[in-house]
Amino acid sequence: METVPGRARVYVAGVTVCACVLVLPSAPSPASLPSPGVGPSAWAVALLAVLYAAGELPARRRLAGTFYPVLLAGAFLLPPPAAALVAVPGALLSHGPRRGVLLRRVWRAAQLVVAVWAAARTHGALGGRGAVAAPDFPWALAPAGAAVLVFCLVLAVLDTGVLALAERAPVARTWRAVFAHSLAPVAVHGLAGLMMAVLWRSPYGPVAALLVLLPMYVSWWVFAQYHRERAAHRATIRALVQAVDIKDGYTRGHSERVGRASMMIARELGLDEDRVEVLRLAGILHDVGKLGVPTRLLRKDGPLTPEERRVIELHPEYGHEITRGISFLGEARAAILHHHERLDGSGYPYGLSGTQIPECARVVAVADAFDAMTSTRTYRRARPVAAAVQELRRCAGAQFDPTMVEALIRALAREGWHPAVTAEEPEREPAVPRPRRASRSRGRPGVHR
């Protein structure tokens, strides 16, 4: 939302006005406040608001999520206007990107107010407050489940609206993705919120209810650690790929597309998602060993000498060494080392043949060749996908594994392929002469005719 179109700002303003209208009735006079634990007393609203803010601040600083159990407990305990008010302080004080932070905070507060109000209204209409005060399981789960579902639906609808207006995202597809992604986490948070509400109304009081939050905070911290680790992995991969792109500008974008094609092949083979991710990383990093090859060889204008060719053929081993300390790559390192091996044993660096070549390397080899043929470079134009597929079939059994070739062909028939131009603009590197069309591809390892 750094550059938000006017129509999206109007939408945010409308939702904010609606939220203000829903919250206004929640300011009762001191004389009308019921006794603690029975109604929307000021101390209950304040305590829940503080608890929500305490969970929201660290969560929003590290994750793109939020801490819902306190909000849903408020929806189960308080009337709709008072429950909606619980979300305001935490949302307005939450951390976020520096640009557009005020608009983001206002939007987050407004959508949570509307969602919590709708959930509390649904819960009350189904007799949920009586079920919380005198719990009769499993019947108490029905109004709570309906309230959680409404809460998730409202958030999904509001998020879909702002995405459709700000980014012109397709409405139906965006709504399904947002709702499916958020339903399971919100359901888990709803159960914790219901436990908190039942204990709050029990003879043990709010102190017992707070005990529910301890395992939730611990699990949220573990979740945050996992996301930080994933972010560090992505940063490592991104830095290596950018370094290769800077060194060999003629293949800019090639790594990401090889990763995508490797992932398509892996899914077509029915591999589990963990291995699919490993193969995606293998495709992205397959040429990282070029960092160890002299730049003058990668950009040489003319055919390579046998000695220069042998130096470039060392890049799989360089890549294997560069990634030695990156433990999360797993078998991707084997693909980096062996993606230039051929089934007939004429490849490099070790001349492996047949099933001696690791499966992941056979996948990346097909993906690498396909993208090399279908990408436009400064020294040649891209081949049509049909021509590239025909060439892969012709080389299957000698250079490529036929199983991997057919898997890619089936995936392409179902999903299609839309490669981008990867040639580096000549004017960006004035010191490097533009290669002649025929000379650059001659004698270069890894170029598939």
Describe the structure.
With 449 residues, the chain is mainly alpha-helical. The chain folds into 2 domains: 6-229, no CATH class; 248-428, Hypothetical protein af1432, CATH 1.10.3210.10. The protein is built from 19 helices and no strands. The protein has helices at residues 6-23, 42-62, 69-77, 80-85, 87-93, 101-125, 128-133, 141-167, 171-201, 205-247, 254-268, 273-284, 295-298, 306-312, 315-322, 332-338, 359-374, 385-395, 402-415. Helix 1 (6-23) packs across helix 6 and helix 17 (359-374) runs antiparallel to helix 18. The protein is elongated and about 85 Å long. Mean pLDDT is 80; it is low at 27-39, 59-65 and 421-449. Residues 434-449 have a biased composition (Basic residues). It comes from Streptomyces thermocoprophilus. Residues 251-373 form the HD domain. It is an enzyme of class 3 (hydrolase). Residues 420-449 are annotated as: Disordered.
CA radius of gyration: 29 Å
> Runs with pLDDT <50, length 5+?
27-39, 59-65, 421-449
Mean pLDDT: 80
Count structural domains. 2
The largest sheet, given as strand count, sense and whether it forms a barrel, is:
none
How many β-strands, per DSSP?
A: 0
Helix content: 55-70%
Structural class: mainly alpha
With helices defined by DSSP (H or I, 4 residues minimum), what is the helix count? Answer: 19
The proportion of residues in beta strands is under 5%
> Gap between N and C termini, in Å?
45 Å
User: Overall 3D geometry?
Assistant: elongated
Helix-strand pattern, N to C? Answer: HHHHHHHHHHHHHHHHHHH
Organism: Streptomyces thermocoprophilus
Pfam family, one: HD_5
EC number: 3.1.4.-
InterPro entries: Cyclic_di-GMP/3'3'-cGAMP_PDE, HD/PDEase_dom, HD_domain, HD_GYP_dom, HDIG_dom
